[in-house]
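re: ur msg from earlier - yeah i can do the NDP complex, just paste it... oh wait u already did. ok heres what im feeding in:
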Amino acid sequence: MAERVRFENVVDGVRLGSADGRWIESANPFTGKPWAEVPHCGLDDVDRAVDAAHKAFVKGPWPSMTASARGKLLRRLGDLIERDAARLAEIEVKDNGKLLAEMAGQVRYMAEWFHYFGGLADKIEGGVIPTDKPDMFTYTKREPLGVVVCITPWNSPLLLLTWKLAPALAAGNTIVIKPSEFTSCSTLAFMDLIAEAGFPQGVVNTLTGFGSEIGTALVEHPKVAKVAFTGGDATGASVYAAAARGIKHVTLELGGKSPNIVFADAAIDDAVKGAISGIFAASGQTCIAGSRLLVQRAVYDEVCEKVASFAATARLGDPMDSGTQVGPITTQPQRRKVLDYMEVARGEGARCLLGGGTPDRPDLKDGWFVEPTIFADVSNDMRIAREEVFGPILSIIPFEDDEEAVEIANDTIYGLASGVWTSNIRRAFTMADRIRAGTVWVNTYRAVSYLAPFGGYKKSGIGRESGQHAIDEYLQTKCVWINLAEGVPNPFVLR
Ligand code: NDP
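and the outut:
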């Protein structure tokens, strides 16, 4: 048996396994073989991690640290991420099978969130209220919430953690991270940088294990103040319900069925590339996947043909190789789910233009691959157009005019992202107004930034990550009243 790398949790600054000594295997989606182990935590471990975070929130150096000092720690963490990006990206690829080229860029870019929110840490200001009570001085303070649980999925573990961790720490909270059990290794490796940056013990803690075993106990824990979650909408709903029982704050970043809309007046070759990158990058395993390609009838046949021919050239292979364009699916259950949806689409009468199964190549036989797949003549009431697949399946849907494009685009339970391809400036602005989604891209797709708020309308979530708004998700407002008058007037009457 090949030797496995063992990654331990960090609780209160100490590396450890689970309380009862169990481990979970982490498999490489390209080889299909386990390559690492992470602690299989249970309910005792939940208490240990939350207690450590809670202690660090109320005692020790963290609560008395100035905001400027906190900001410095975050910026130092950003520098360390830049230094170690290549190492972290390799771990991420072994766990989730995404392309090394993409993950290396993504991890390097993550540093910007820590630099940006480090800069914001000491710009969190309260205000003075010009109160109507003459002898009162009334002011507000923006204060952290307490222990924040960050629950992250398997598709981009470190980036999606960063979107939570950077603003939560800048605001002065303490943290318990629960990564997906499929892809915990990079998070545990990243904890070395938290220590090296100089964060006090207990400020950031990790808890690996199965969401089904420890998730509810973690969310419901009385010492947890907020849950920041990214994942599927069914799990998101159960996290929301558990958080509601304890009246906790939540941010939810859930699924999507994003429309990528091509008008006849678009630069068609650019739109084709936008369609490809919207669905086949990361093998379609992104919440922002442009999984519904809406194409105006006048260019429908041309776009179908061009998208299919372009996608047919995609090179599947080892995600570590720089020449690979499409890697495996991250988990075996997810691969099964994607393959099942191909059958669903066929059963519904969609026309398969490309792919539709697993690649028949001996060098890929151990990996969890599926073919880049395109279905045309999809109607928006088919399951393949309504449900999030989270894989490389594109559904192409025709439309006549702007009105119909808006109607189809908005006819979904989701509202995370959208794309519009047009050369008409008036149409671009009008579509941006009318599409009910947290992000609208015009003549581009998949752009994100630490500066730009990201989040969903409708069932795609609650709250915003990145940008200045994100820090508000981790703060609460206190109002302080100082009586400057002598004596207390009639105690039985509200002033
Ligand atoms: P989940 O939504 O179940 O997983 C996301 C995270 O939640 C993981 O860390 C998971 O842990 C954890 N979790 C699971 N159950 C609970 C619970 N009861 N309480 C608290 N945390 C919990 O994603 P899946 O892996 O099941 O994927 C299902 C579908 O979700 C995908 O097919 C895709 O459609 C969608 N998805 C969307 C993502 C997005 O970015 N919006 C990301 C990932 C998936 P554990 O892994 O240990 O179960």
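cool cool. The first helix runs from residue 43 to 58. ping me if u need the other ligands too
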